Structure formats: structure tokens, C-alpha cells
Amino acid sequence: MTVRSEVTKHLNILCYGYNAGQKKLDKARTQGAIIINEPDFLTLLETGEIPEDSHHA
């Protein structure tokens, strides 16, 4: 896993915070990335599963 500050073509999962920019979210969605918030990311780390109510692109 690599933490980046920008959306790149190799992005698979975008974990966003309270101040995420709409442009970044839209670009990740367009690229087909999975978009999750911090609580869902922590669940992913703990269980290996993405919660059903997450925002999938």
C-alpha cells in the first residue's frame, strides 16, 4: 500500500477525510477506484472486508 496525496492512474482505493475535495473524489470515481471514508478503511484493515454501505465507484 502506498499513501499518496493525489489521484493517480494506479489508484485502487481512495480513503477520504472530512476535507476531501470534490474534484479529487470525482477523478477517483471516474477511474473506477473504491472510495471509502476513514471508519470504513479501519474496518477494511481489521476485517479485510469493505462495508456494504461504502461508496463504490
What would you call the structural class? alpha+beta
The coarse silhouette is globular
Largest sheet: 3 strands, mixed
Extended strand count: 3
Name the helicity range: 25-40%
Give the end-to-end Cα distance, rounded to a whole number of Å. Answer: 19 Å
Widest beta sheet: strand line-up: 1-2-3
- The run of helices and strands is EHEHE
Q: Approximately what portion of the residues adopt beta-strand conformation?
A: 15-25%
In round numbers, the mean pLDDT is 87
Our count of helices gives 2
Radius of gyration: 11 Å
Low-confidence stretches: none
Summary of the model, kept short:
The protein is 33% helix and 18% strand. The chain has 57 residues and is of the alpha+beta class.
Structure characterization notes:
By secondary structure, the chain is α+β, with helices and mostly antiparallel strands. Helix content is 33%, strand content 18%. The chain has helices at residues 22-30, 38-47; strands at residues 13-16, 34-37, 55-56. The protein has a three-stranded mixed sheet. Strand 1 (13-16), helix 1 (22-30) and strand 2 form a beta-alpha-beta unit.
Index terms:
alpha+beta; about 55 residues
Protein topology:
Blueprint (H helix, E strand, L loop, with lengths): L12 E4 L5 H9 L3 E4 H10 L7 E2 L1
Parallel strand pairs: 1-2
Antiparallel strand pairs: 2-3
